[in-house]
Design brief:
The protein is built from nine helices and twelve strands.
């Protein structure tokens, strides 16, 4: 999302950016998401939920998101919903395929299957989606993102003097059915096992690790579950039945209905150190937007798409 937004804004400002896409399609992980672009309703709640994040970047996103959504809709984006159905947040829900088509058209030609050149010249905006593939592989987790985000932008900038933020081991993710469940890209949203607040949690060898408190977003459970665990609930629900249909291990036990689950990485939280213009600190002529930039949701959870939208606009205007 960040790269397409930046390219569309640059064209509005009279420039002709070249847009490179490593994958076989535009849209990155935005295309695979529920496409809710949101912010915390209250600033203090944002700081409380992401206590280790960069306050200046958080403030930029919190203050600018509403206008950024207005800009998005000025291009023709039509919300599916004009609220988030969550009393703690505000934002919009879009159809991810429609939004991708709209932004790709506004961005101009997208050169598919074109990785980042090793000697790319500035001005350069990195919007490669962080390094969820690498993190998932290193930690034995599932991947709930596009398969091309392996840290290309991170490596490129670090090799040229960039620093990284705290939270390089943190991720936003969801608890999903564990293998042998079959999870296709179109299953990323419907197969998320979002009932953790009502579940008891056990390790793979049946040691109980149920936390005393679970956050509303359940991202904390994704960190806790790790490569494999069990959710146990008293009654089944439609998400469990979807997991069963996908081939997940669902079994009856004395404690209740047990579902074998695993954490899946959607995007990384740590990343490149940028300022509020999205310029990568320590480099000359390099910007980073989306989750290539780190330091926004450190210690918690915030909207990756809001970060992509606001930093994509900020980068374009700075360039």
């Amino acid at each position: 999302m960040a790269g397409l937004v930046a390219a569309a804004r640059l064209r509005e400002l009279g420039h002709e950016p070249r847009v490179l896409e490593k994958g076989t399609r535009a849209g990155g992980s935005m295309l695979l998401s529920s496409c809710v672009v949101w912010r915390h309703l209250e600033w203090d709640r944002f700081r409380e939920e992401c206590p280790d994040g960069d306050g200046a970047l958080q403030r930029l996103i919190w203050e600018r998101l509403d206008d950024a959504l207005g800009w998005l809709e000025s291009l023709g984006a039509e919300p599916v919903r004009r609220d988030t159905e969550n009393p703690l947040t505000t934002g919009r829900r879009y159809d991810p395929r429609a939004l991708t088509r709209l932004l790709a058209e506004a961005a101009g030609e997208v050169e598919l299957e074109t990785p980042l050149p090793k000697e790319a010249e500035p001005p350069l905006l990195l919007a490669t989606g962080g390094f969820p593939g690498r993190l998932a592989r290193e930690r034995g987790l599932l991947l709930r993102a596009n398969p091309w985000s392996e840290g290309d932008g991170l490596d490129f900038a670090v090799a040229r003097g960039a620093g990284t933020t705290a939270g390089m081991d943190e991720f936003y993710g969801r608890v999903m059915p564990a293998p042998p469940a079959r999870i296709r890209e179109e299953d990323f949203v419907p197969l998320a096992q979002l009932y953790g607040r009502e579940a008891r949690v056990f390790t793979d060898d049946w040691r109980e690790i149920t936390p005393q408190r679970v956050a509303w977003h359940e991202n904390d459970l994704a960190q806790l579950v790790g490569p494999r665990a069990w959710y146990v609930v008293e009654e089944t629900n439609y998400r469990i039945e979807a997991a069963r249909a996908a081939g997940a291990t669902v079994a009856g036990r004395e404690e209740g209905i047990a579902v074998h689950v695993a954490a899946a990485v959607t995007h990384t939280i740590g990343g490149l150190h940028v300022n509020t213009d999205a310029r990568v600190i320590g480099t000359d002529g390099i910007w980073a937007a989306g989750v290539d930039a780190g330091g926004v949701a450190t210690g918690g959870y915030a909207s990756g798409l809001a970060q992509a939208l606001v930093l994509g606009l900020a980068a374009a205007e700075s360039i």
